[in-house]
Structure formats: C-alpha cells, structure tokens
Specification:
Length: 71
Amino acid sequence: MGKRLVFFILAALVIAGGAIYFGSTGSASFIWQISGGGTLLLPIVAAAALVDSINPCAFSILLLTIAFLFS
C-alpha cells in the first residue's frame, strides 16, 4: 500500500506542476518554440484534437447503439 501511495503522490505532483507550467504565460513561448515558429502549429493542434477525441466510453455506446438499430 505504501508504494501505491508514493506513486499517486508523485503523479499528483507531476500533474500539478504541468498545470502550473502550462497555465503560466511562459507556455505560449514554449508552444511557439516546439511548433517551429508557427509552421507546425496546425499539425500539433490537429494531433492533440485527435488524441483528445478518443474516448473509450464512446466505443461501447456506439456498439450498443448499432446493436439497438439492427435489432
């Protein structure tokens, strides 16, 4: 139980640190740097949207809806 607690505390610290870093004004310059001065900004946003749109619950609901429609 102790290892799990340490893991969750570390994970919470990493998430909180990321939220603080990306919530600050310095995150805009960081994104501008990794996007190559804006040339890769659209592909980065498109990839982030694609990753964000994957929802495991949607697959089960989709299967249930298709099964209902065919029944």
